[in-house]
Write the structure tokens for this entry.
Amino acid sequence: MRIAGLTGQGIEFATEVIVRACAMKGLNVYTFRWFPTIVRGGFTYSEIRISDEEVNALPDRIDVLAVLDESGLKDLDSLLSEDSIMLIDEGLSIPHHDWRVVRQPLKKASSEAKSRLNVVVVGFISGLLGLGYDVVSIVLEKISKKDLLESNLRGVEAGYKLFVESSLESFDLPSLSVSKSVVQGSDMVALGALSAGCKFFAGYPITPSTSIMEKLMKWLPEVGGLAVQVEDELSAVNMVIGASYAGARSMTATSGPGLSLMVEGIGFSAMAEIPIVVVDVQRVGPSTGIPTAYEQGDIDLATHPSHGDVPRIVLAPSTIEEYYSMTVTAFELADRYRCPVILLLDQVYVMNYFTLDKLEASRASGRKYVSRVRGEGLQVFPSYSGLADCIPSPPLDGFLVVASSVEHDVRGLSMQDGQTHVEMSWRRLGKLRELEENPVEWEVLGDTDSSEAIVSVGSCRGAVEEALEKVRGSGRMIMHIPLKQLWPLPRKLGETLRNIEKIYVVEQNASGQLLNLISSMLPKTAELKSIRKFDGCPFRPGEIYKGLVSDGGV
Amino acid sequence: MDVFERAKPRWCPGCGDFSVYEALKNAFIELGLRPEEIVIVCGIGCATFIWSYINTNALKGIHGRVLPAATGVKLANPGLKVIGVSGDGDAYSIGGNHLVHTARRNVEITYIVVDNGVFGNTRGQPSPTTPIYSVVKNYPFRWPEKPVNPLLLALVSGATFVAQGFVGDVKKLKEYFKEAIIHRGFSFINILSVCPTFNPTRTVRELKEEIVYVEEFGAPLDNVRDAVDLVLSIQGEGKNPVGVIYKKLEPTYNELLKATGKLDPSINYDRISEIAERELGLKMLIKD
């Protein structure tokens, strides 16, 4: 279903109520919100897909559309069918159509109930979906602002009454025995950071990554950590480097423009071998682009983030669960290889609502210090020799710790001769060979002995899997690699695809950044097809399916 | 050779950085500090080579980002004495923004800016403190920009310790360093320095004629308006104030954030599970 209207009409709140009601009934949801940068009066909609089975992508059609403002009748393409129900205020005019329009006195009901239009709509929808007035009331009690609770309850009641009087048939969504938790990707990343032993965060507000900072500001102090908001991204990345040098697992989170500002710091982290985790929630670029919309356009920048030969690891989780587990992995890898790890995330997962039963977590090793050494005469510790398998931080008994952005010897002291640079470059770059051979995050889905394969990235996975179900129905076998370790590229990618005849690369950007990244690994004989989209919205399964069955590009 | 000597300092003959090196090293010794408890955080520029010569912990960062990196160190481990060292380009040009914000946060670090009015490391370009109309080695015209006023900038930004040193008076400079290092809060010292190689018209002798010791005027003051007035009145006479101009005790960033101990690396899964349960109604299953 979709709720559409203007920013400021409370569509986000309506979405949250419906999502939480579904979760209480044990249903799964996948949500996506389109919203503009302006806080009041811009076109916005929220899509909620509800199922008793797992859902990992947007739907191909909208069954229920609730319109709070005429301008909400946009971007519908072929999503509505003649069975779709459109709920609209009786006073609104709509263009020629062949949809089932349900005209209701929504505004009148909202003013009579001295409530807001969005909650009246929620009331009507809760009847239509069969969420139950009780369930919705419980949700409202949980998430309403205190002074709005009474009015919200009145509004929902009024909307519910309108539904009852409308004599429409309810969808009667089932109630499953165990209710679900409602999470956003930002929750998963923040929890992952805590579970990895992250103790310091510095960041600068930027859509769509800000919620990660806000959550960590609240949660980190509870586990003995600290999160600060600083003056800019340059400060943020250098501050987390300083904190990591002083012994704390540290992270920053940003979005495209912020990542552009952080790249010099990422090079510093790599050169000084001070582990940091940089979260990049991608948005539409280049430059300011569309700050609130979804795109996977930072693959180029994240995999090639700074000048010089920079050792770096780039991870791109593909499921909401992986937003947690791979955040933990990011910290573990950063420390193990003492280099920056960039966690490349998608707006759709970070900002929207999803349901989970539980969260499985394994224990992280946390920051391991160099210990049980005893220096004499305050030598500088050989931080950059093979011996230092843990991370040296000051104060270190009997040693001094030097970390430097300048080319250096094994102790970190400046050494700007060619030979040292050659040796230290091999040291820095050689560290990641292990990860190239044995990627920590690697998965092959579907038919492994097929002659066709799909390589996807990030949140495209869900839509690809759903499209593949349909393809398999017709007897066609396709392998699917949701590529999660973008740098260093796993050798396995080339080996797995060695005998594949046709390869589809699925990603959400205009230039085919993933395809460019992996092209050197693909067999020369294979036919390549890029399936990509960059209109700010996630793929729908049907769009991928079309790409798989047609010869033209999408 | 004392415990703070790492290597013989190498700068051009007559460079002001030698004085800064001597004064800082002796300040450490006289304060009874141990090298292990000090972190020198450096940016880019000739003065920042000091970390190679003074034997302490060091974080040699990138151009202009001394203060964020130093803040990160202090927040993660407040037990460390954190000393930032920049030149005028590092501090007032590329890194200018951070000075404002670190000062207003009152992060307990000492920030030393060696101000010689020229980009020496890149061989003689004008810097943010180069006086207007002056002739600079690698600039083809008279310099058309007014200089930054570091003391006023620090004062109005909320620094709780503002001083100006002079490389021609190493003994006093050392005393300012000592006071700055023990100050509980953000201590800022701009040092009037010289670059005989790339800014030869600015000499120690010439600077000496311009300086006025602010202690004669009752400094350090603890009122920003009085401190600003003092700086402006001395500068209005074409002179340069030297000494500790302003000093005041205010809560530090660490204190305000309740980050008064080293951040503990251990992971408390029970606490994390509680957060997940409370905030998200989410059950965490921790596997061993």
Notes: The CA atoms of residues 504 and 529 of chain A lie 5 Å apart. Chain A touches chain B through 76 residues (CB under 8 Å).
